[in-house]
Amino acid sequence: MSEIMKNAVVGILIVCLYCFPYVYNSMYQDFTYRSMLGYLLMLVATLLLPFFGKLFSHSIYLIIGNILSVIISFYFINEMSWNEEWGGYFKPLTPNQLLIFASVLFLIPQLFAMRLAKKLKDRVKG
Predict the structure, then answer these.
(1) How far apart are alpha carbons 31 and 90 in whole angstroms?
(2) pTM of the model
């Protein structure tokens, strides 16, 4: 299998793994079980996925994956809008505002993970 094909396969796998609604899952775990484990899962995912994505593939797959994850989380968050407690649980933010805030906030560890992967990749090549 060629290097380009391997990069594409890894990239598609990364996008598929990003399709999990990490922010929604974190918020749901917090709301339902008063547990912060969902946020921890999101942090681990936002460290591992971009690290391996940058190490073995191209950054475009990470961008696409992040966008898809936010869209899927947005869908599920809006599906919970029937629950009045859900809307007020995350005050002073609305659930959609928290989605945007968390998505932007969790870009920071992704950038660090990508930078680390690039340094490691350059070290191995050079």
Answers:
(1) 8
(2) 0.92
Peptide bond into 92 cis (omega under 30): yes
Strand segments, DSSP code E, in the chain are none
Interval 67-114: pLDDT, tens: 999 999 999 999 999 999 999 999 999 999 999 999 999 999 999 999
Domain range spanning residue 19? Answer: 3-125
User: Using one digit for the tens of pLDDT, what is the confidence trace for 40-65?
Assistant: 999 999 899 999 999 998 899 999 99
Query: What is the number of domains present in the chain?
Result: 1
- C-alpha pair distances (Å), 76 with each of 24, 89, 111, 124: 7, 16, 26, 41
